[in-house]
User: Fold this.
Amino acid sequence: MNPQRPFVRKVVYVVTICVLLLPLYLLARPASTDRPGGRLSQLRQQAGLSQAQLGEIDPASETIKLATLGMRGVAANILWAKANDFKKKKDWTNLSATLNQITRLEPNFISVWKFQGWNLSYNVSAEFDDYRERYRWVIHGIDFLIRGVGYNRTHPRLYWEVGWFAAQKIGRADEHKEFRAMFVKDDDFHERYKTPSLEERDNWLVGKRWFARSEDVVKAGGSLGNMSEVIFYSNRPMSQMNYSEALEDDGTFGEKARQGWRKAENEWNAYGAFPIQTSYTDDQGQPIKIFLNERESFASEAVALRKELDSLQPGVREDILWERWTKLSDEEMGATHYMCIQDQQSGDPTISAIIALLDKRLPAWRTELLPKREAMLTQDENRLLATPKRNRQDDEHAAAERIEGEIFKVAGRVRERMMINDLDVVRRITGPDRSKAGQLADRIAKSERMATIIQNYRQIVNFEHWRRRAEVEQSAAALAARSSAFEGKQALAEGRLPEAADAFAEGMRKWRELFEDSGFDNLADDDSIAETVMESIQDYVKVLEQQDDLFPDDFPLGDFVLQRVEKESSGVLRMAREATAAREKALAEGDLDAALAECEGGLKMWQDLLGRFPALTLMASKEAGQEIFDTINRYGDVLRQRHEPFPDNFPLLDFLHLHIEQAEETLKARNAITEGNLLLSESKFPAAQEAYDRGLAEWRKLLDKFPVLLSGADKAVAGELTQAVEGYGKILELRGKQFPEDFILRDVREMMRPAN
Amino acid sequence: MVIEEQLPPFLAWLLGPVWYQGAGLYWLAVVGCLSLSAVIVGFLCATIRRGPVAGLKATRNAIREGLVDLVKISPRRVVALTRLAVKESIGKKIVVGFAVFIVVLMLAGWFLDPGSENPGRLYLSFVLTATSYLVLLLALFLSAFSLPGDIRSRTLHTVVTKPVRPSEIVLGRILGFTAIGTFLLIVMGSLSYLFVVQGLSHTHTITAEDLEPVDVAQEGADPNAAPPLEGQTSLVHNHRHHVSIDPSGVGRLERANGHTHELSTQGSGYKVGPTQGALLARVPIYGKLSFRDRDGLDKEMGINVGDEWFYRSFIAGGTQAAAIWTFSGVREDAFPGNEIPVEMTLGVFRTHKGKITRPVLGSLSVRNPETGLTVDVEIFESREFEPLQLALPTRIDRNSVAGTQLISRKANSPDGPVLTPPTEMLDQSLAQKEEFNLFEDLVADGKMEIWLRCLESGQYFGAAQPDLYFRADDASVELNFIKGYCGIWMQMVLVIAVGVMFSTFLSGPVAMIATLGSMVGGFFGDFMMKLAEGAVVGGGPLESLVRLITQKNVSTDLDPGLGTDITLMADRVFQVALRGMASVLPPFGDFNYATYLAYGFDVSWNVVCIRLVTALAFLFPLFIAGHLFLRNREVAR
Assistant:
């Protein structure tokens, strides 16, 4: 036998295997980012089939699984640890390669796709300093997820994640302006995933399409897992909202923006009309389905039914309430009195009902019940509660809170007992109507429960705000207001201050128009819209500050600004006004010490408000401005009566100084005095005196406008005044004259005298 | 490239900075200890069997005969035995190994995406790793099963009847298997090289529509001249290159995915040439890195900005902080050109976003360590994870630099801060020169400092020693590839030697498991040493086991008690054993040069020499041990 034969045979075997491998290789080669893959892969792509439908025959995945000899779990764990290490050591090439291997090993493990997709788009991208690199990695993450979708076509969450990344990661990143622009220009991405048109390349619209696809998969039977339906279904219409918002941020207004918002409104309404499964269950233990649009109908139905119930035997509800009231102890009545006084504006239906009852049956309850409340506390505690918050010492706040807490504990128990439900009413109804009353009560409970459930779910997605927003933003006034704000911002950034001021002023007028539009009730109360307007006002303030100007007299949003200050100042405005009232009372009573304390408290509070709301400093609200001047003037009065000088740097000195500098009279006075000094240096005494007369007349006007100047509130201006009077005296002296009896600034001379 | 531990020069490594720290002496000590232990164990065994006097005699005889065996090795017989080993191997596994390699290469394309961030890195890592695993497995099987198989089939009895020594049998096996492995490695290396080159090779197209004129109106520019053009190439391998063409028609492509292409004109259009720079063998010249803190005081380390990985230290921008590389041996004859190419990789850390669209600004200065003259040669925009290529001109015009100044280094001493040079020694006139000669003005005794500073307040730059280097002329990529395979070859020879050594006294499967264990231990030597030193979070082996079973977090302490005390004590014993094993097992991982090749760096001859000597240092005792074990087997007598 030839000894070479076995060797030759083996070589033949190997060659045969290799030859057979070639066609297999060509057939089964998988697709990659830029290769269509083998014939099988192409067929699968054409037919839109997933590996599951073809019996999991992705050859790359299967090969790597086989190569691990059944230990793919272990291998995936090791690779996962390696991926973490590569990430730690910032080795991005190997990280990508390792993630690729993990997904080949575990292509149907959804968490791998989600976690590592997030890792790439959010964590790895953040490691790069160059925003273009960051963008590339965001796209890598999206590509990664889309690859995962290819393996898991029946999992809606992966589609949803793609939508979320495209919409939120690109649209909400710090560098979203740059990301969005790059995304639109990313031909490769849009060609790869077949974005239908240039218009549709917006990241919000791309995200929206993926959200729509995930909804389709759910409708086809895909499971959402533990994701809430109300959130899941909100993403698609929200993307349209965000798209419309982004259009305006980018400076697109007019018909395109209007259409965007109209579409958003329609989609939001359709979302409201879509059945949403809740976590609440009905009597049979089945999950309750709701329609977000239906809250109002359930609420009004409940109101109508309750009216019908009450009409069966009028006055029953009030009688029950009164019976319960009469059974309360003195302590409970005292506590309820305190609660009703403190919380009368809270809108709580039980408290409102108690107040209405007491007003009707015990009209003097406010004074009559006071001793009962005072009896609950010691004398010191009563005095502490009677002290307004602003006048409490630091260590008194905690004690006052503790006492209030005790009172409210008792009052809270009363409140619960005073709540009348419909069944209480039904029990009192006798005769043939009782059965009908029971049915009505049952229907009321059901309607109210549905309204509450819908309300809870609405709050999750801020349903009402967005519905209203989409409606408002379509209006011509809103579009014009946004457009003007955008122009103003652009002009501000480019240093074109007059244009910026004009644009902002125009924007403000448009907002005013909107606020007065009867179609949009209480629009100024909508926090989101109010924030937008306030932001615009802040930008306007920047322009005015740079122009050394104040808000124009016809600024149309003064009341709105004051309203926001009231809402956002955590009670400081209210306390400042309370201080004003207390100050006036103290002055009327001749208590100068108390008046001074209230003045100083008021000044501090206004200072705090001016710091937080710079628009107030520039007289956005004339009403608030006048209140501030009143406070300063009253402070000057009190000091004068107490024969005390104005302290240096009193809290609102900057505000006062700014407005003195802005006053027309100041400029005129200074110009005239400067002219007088020039003429004086040229020994033209009569002309100098004439100029000085003009100047002093302007100073007089200013003093009448800001009487507090005479008290030395603004030392710098007081110095100028003194110099002017001295200069005038010098001219008179040179001309051999005396100060006239009716000297226009006699009071200034008198102010100067003690110093002399 | 990340080098967490840089190797010293060969002689410094071998002899050490002081005489007792050299690798050579360490090796002698370990080998001496092992030999002595072997002699003592041998003597004790002989004493138990024959009594102390006869035992002593037997031990002496064994040593003498062993030495004679070694000294009288016949090259002719060794060659004959080597040939025998080669013949046996050819009939066994080599063909299978080769076939598997071909299959792996064919399938590799499925897992390697040429459109990845840096495909060159990916391809090279893959081929080197795949080759390494396959060759080592082959070496493992060949070496572990050969001798036991011969003993079982009594083939060896025929051999030992001939006048051959056990040392010759062991050496013959080692050399024979090495020859087979070497042949296989050459074939695999050649195929791998072709695979990598073919895998990375591609070109792009560019049409007139892809280019758009750029509006850069410059003062004095000819209004009739063609405007510069910019655009992008076609998408190939998931990337495009940015193209810029100047008014004269000369164009260039920006780097993308770790490479670029040559751009030439073809008729009225442009033609993109083949891949350039995807495979490189940079020759870096490293300096020594130190830091300066925000107050200008010298420090060994910079700031940790909260990175989990402590590789890079950071310097604060807009302060006196700097990262300072001190280069030695900077002489004119070593850098004959007009400039010294410098490459730098940075870490950037922002404490505020700053201007999002603009990178952070930094400066690079050259300082004479003796005179303190510092010239700010470059203001640059930061770039991460890709080397930034700069150049230090040998003649620096004062008008072309950002600034010149005289700076003293400030270091803390027991007597307070010391300035070098002292302020009164600073010669201000040095900074007033109109032109600076790099070698004359900024180098002192061959030493020069490069200062890296971050210019923006609130932002930080991070640097590690290998992050900045002078780039000498590139080495040959092919030769570097061969060096990479030399590393695998050394691994293979060591595995063969370990396998043959174990096969002299163990049965085939046991020898294979023992060799595999040595390989695994060798590859994870660093981890074993960390485990032995108690530097691994989660404690020693037993403590980790307890944590696994009780599902206890690695960062919480075990509950105090007897069980924990016993666990910790047992771990101390384990740690001694682990330390011993980690010291004697060959560090297989050190012979892997995949990172050098993948990142486009030349494997220096210094590294090759150190690893070669390391391999020899392990081979010699393995051969001696194998020979002694075989001598003591009945079959060899």
